[in-house]
Amino acid sequence: AVVSTQSTGVLDERIGDHQAVKCTIDFSVQRAPKYKKVTIRNHSLNNIRIFKQYLQNQSEFLDNHICTDDDAESAASKLNSILNNLYNYFFPLKTISVHEK
């Protein structure tokens, strides 16, 4: 916490046979966040269905661009790249706020 003294002094009003001392302190306390940010992907049944349909419709493309490759390492790399790009497209990262317990 950051603390700075704003003013000090003695109150003119007496409390019994004593005088009260006054000190005004300005400080701020950081509040704990009520919500925690979490990054997720939406793997809903609908998104999975659309993803599967898209892959089924692209079978000719995959055959022409991957299955015709004579180098297995190159074909696997191409397939991995295509699937990663499609996964990121159909299941994008999303940041949500969840209530901390």
Number of strands: 4
Largest sheet: 2 strands, antiparallel
Approximate helicity band: 40-55%
Please work out how many helical segments DSSP would assign: 3
Low-confidence stretches: none
Percent strand: 35-45%
* Overall average residue pLDDT: 82
Order of strands, main sheet, comes to: 1-2
Radius of gyration of CA atoms, rounded to a whole number:
32 Å
**SS class:** alpha+beta
Shape: rod-shaped
The CA-CA distance between the termini, in Å, is 24 Å
In words, what does this structure look like?
It is rod-shaped, with a radius of gyration of 32 Å. The chain has 101 residues and is an alpha+beta fold. The protein has 3 helices and 4 strands, in the order βββαααβ.
Features:
two-stranded antiparallel sheet; 4 strands; rod-shaped; 101 residues; alpha+beta; single chain; 39% strand
Outline the fold blueprint.
Elements: E1 2-15, E2 18-28, E3 35-41, H1 45-57, H2 59-67, H3 72-90, E4 93-99
Antiparallel strand pairs: 1-2, 3-4
Helix pairs in contact: 2-3
Can you summarize this structure?
This protein has 101 residues and is of the alpha+beta class. It contains three helices and four strands.
